[in-house]
Write the structure tokens for this entry.
Amino acid sequence: MLEKGLGKVLLSQEQLGEIVERLGREITEAYQGSKNELIVIGLLRGSFLFMADLVRQIKLPMTTDFLTVSSYGDGTVSSGDVKVVMDLDETITGCDVLVVEDIIDTGNTFSKVIRMLQNREPASLKICTLLNKPSRREVEVKIDFCGMDIPDEFVCGYGLDYAQKYRNVPYVGIYTGS
Ligand code: IMP
Ligand code: MG
């Protein structure tokens, strides 16, 4: 049975597990030779479930931190404005920084976050997103690790919300409204 408001399962729990495992392997390989401290940064709130599963698949010493920015209101359209609601606790200067995002849509939010983090002079800065909507891109974003490209549909579950709901749904489904 699907949640009310979700029309179709896009990624089942099993498919999500496979994607996260593959990303963990790719990330582990990418950073294996580095001598810098690895900091994995989750963008809240959307990335919290993905981040929790992903870090367990990265077989390297690391620290974790979280950043909250606000972009969307309670709707499905980006306002284009990005505000830092809660900043990092850690200093990232000289570290390998991996930013973990739930979904990259227009790229507006993310490009601003990346610019802000780049100003703090990390040794490297890479991006991992679970989902990517390339057809919606307005600002170019270089994605280093991508779970899956998806069509232009609004999706919920596994951390992703519509009006703050559905984050606890264990699969990713397409939002169709109630
Ligand atoms: P962007 O600035 O347009 O790339 O927006 C990115 C943010 O919008 C993501 O971090 C999500 O929080 C939210 N978002 C974009 N598309 C979706 C979607 O299909 N479902 C849920 N949230 C979305
Ligand atoms: Mg988000």
Remarks:
- The chain is about 20% helix and 35% strand.
- Residues 47 and 102 are 5 Å apart (CA to CA).
- The beta strands are 6-11, 38-44, 63-72, 78-86, 96-104, 124-132, 145-149, 155-156, 172-175.
